[in-house]
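Entry for calcium ion complex. Fields follow.
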Amino acid sequence: MSPPAPQEGTHVLVVEDDDVIGRHLDAGLRGHGYHSTWCRDGISALAEARAGSHDVVLLDLGLPDTDGIDIARTLRAEFPDLLIVILTARSNEIDVIAGLDAGADDYLVKPFTLTVLLARLRAHLRRRPSGPPAQERAIRLGDLTVDTTARRCLVGTHEIALRPKEFELLAVLARHAGAAVSRETLMARVWDENWFGPTKTLDVTLASLRRRLHQAAADAPFALNLPEITTLRGHGYRLDPAEAGPAPRPGPGR
Ligand code: CA
């Protein structure tokens, strides 16, 4: 089996206030196998970096609320393994030096092409010992394992087949296990950053995911200890970690 492309399962946080550039980067990354989240200012970028688990940050320096250099410094201090690439219109070498000194790994001066950006990312990711950080590879919650790198979901030792959106939804909830995740966040992460339409697709996908997990638990030869997805009315969902000890088998009358 050939090794996966370096970008498989890589999460990129795009920090860019320019709509045209941001949209272009976000769509371009998704089109090339990356997961992408796009923030338009420094404060929301820091919140997103702390809430999610990202491998790469593409960071514009001229942001509406904070200087990108400060964001780079904060991110480097909090996330030593994060790959930080500065995107800057400033060709002034003082800014580039300040960015690298603040902890960035690389920089690209605008305008740059998507092709060059992707090649630089691949080069950086290839040099990493194991691609995405180890803690990202498999999330274990009781008898549920969500392996975001291999895109596998195991209930006990049995792999269950999930549709792509079901898997992504489960992965986001699993990364935030025990914490409430809003409908807006789920729509943005799993469907589209700029989703403004109805969110019924979220409930349909979640119901289907729940059914598959319950069915897998019911089919298992032993009682399993699985996390439960709790509905938070008017807010979103929360994946509650499995309780200690095996859960009772669900009865046939569910
Ligand atoms: Ca800017």
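NOTE: DSSP finds nine helices and twelve strands in the chain.
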